[in-house]
Amino acid sequence: MDIFSNNGRLQWVEAFIKGIPYARASGMYVTEVGEGRAGLGLPARDTWTGDTERGLIHPGVLSVLADTACGVAVGTALTEIEPFATLDLRMDYLRPALANQEIVCRAECHRVSRSVAFVRGELFQPGRAEPVAMVNATFMRATANTRRQERAGSAPTAAAPMSPDQAAASLSAPVSIEPSQVFQSIPADLPETLAIPPGRSPYVDFLNVHQQPQVDAGPVFRLPFKPDLIGNPILPALHGGVLAGFGETGMILHLVATNPGLQGVPRGVDFAIAYLRSAKPVDTFVQGTTVRQGNRVALVQVNIWQDDPQRPVAQARGHCLMPRGED
Questions:
Q1: Residue 315: CA count within 13 A, CB half-sphere
Q2: How far is CA 46 from CA 56, 100, 150, 197, in A?
Q3: pTM, rounded to two decimals
Q4: What residues pair up with 300 in beta bridges, in sequence order?
Q5: pLDDT of 146 above 70
Q6: CA–CA dist 313, 305 (Å, integer)
Q7: Is 92 exposed, middle or buried (0-12, 13-18, 19+ CB in 10 A)?
Q8: Burial class (CB in 10 A: 0-12, 13-18, 19+), 193
Q9: pLDDT per position as a tens digit, 85-140
Q10: What's the CA gap between 248 and 130, in Å, rounded?
Q11: Residue 298, strand partner residues
């Protein structure tokens, strides 16, 4: 039996968004809700600018919004409240997203199997008829812990049917992260600098990305933890979209660092990330490798880790358009 209907579904979505620290901090809001579909908006902020010279939004901002909207669409497609997590996310950037303008993502969960949900969506800006980006994502239903309980014969804790009012109340209740839940965060013992000069990319400033010396293939970049980056306050864990945004940032900064004298900033063409495990509330690191670089397009792969580079929390790759004078 579907527990959502009419205002009940909208109430659940609004409560769900309010329960995500990153969504609250970024001002995300609901634009539309239906069975298996959802729309989320992000208000215009200078913070989201990735390239001040060309006046463009950072692609990582689009990834965070898309990941959240896709997750909401999965929730509205389910008949009972249950946990789910992003397996992978792919972004295709069709045209540049203009800075200091709102951005909206409309996502549709078009298939739900016993274990996996499949979602697709588009991102728009006001006054522009054509989408600026497209997203495809897959989500794993339930968690490993839930499945272990099922095999052991115990009832899954998150699968019990709830009324819309109960679901909304449980999700909208204030969630505080206790100090004991936050793992000690110790940056690598290496000299650091800011990844880029302040003001060049407000979104990179917002993430407070630091750069460490080049190791093997390229430099290592560090994302310092802060509570606003949390996506799951229950575990707690970093927002999957934040990991994607950091991965995209690392990909672009890798190209800048390994191409001295580059005139301008590379622009993302596509980006795909696979999530390997939940990211704890600690500092996170990324290092890129150039797979192939031509005159116009470069393919970069990045490894994202926390405690051990041999145990990444995510891996990603993407194509970037290398800058030319007229870009």
A1: 7
A2: 10, 6, 47, 16
A3: 0.85
A4: 290, 318
A5: no
A6: 5
A7: middle
A8: exposed
A9: 999 999 999 999 999 999 999 999 999 999 999 999 999 998 898 999 999 999 99
A10: 23
A11: 293, 320
What is the mean pLDDT of the segment spanning 214-240?
A: 89
In angstroms and rounded to an integer, the radius of gyration of the C-alpha atoms of the chain is: 20
Q: Angle 7-18/59-77 helices, nearest 10 degrees?
A: 140
User: Please, what's the b/e burial string for 113-138 (b: 16 or more CB within 10 A of its CB; e: otherwise)?
Assistant: eeeebbbbbbbbbeeeeebbbbbbbb
Output the six-digit token pair for 81: 């409240």
Q: How confident is the model at residue 325 (pLDDT cuts 50, 70, 90)?
A: low
Nearest-angstrom CA–CA distance, 327 and 323: 6
Residue scoring higher pLDDT (54 or 167): 54
- Condensed to tens digits (0 to 9), the pLDDT of residues 277-289 reads 999 999 999 999 9
Nearest to 323 by CA among 275, 274, 252, 273: 252
- Give SS3 for 24: helix
307, two tokens: 């405690």
Measure CA 7 to chain center: 28
pLDDT at 9 over 80: yes
| CA-closest candidate to residue 319, choices 269, 273, 272 | 269
User: Can you give the length of the chain in residues?
Assistant: 327
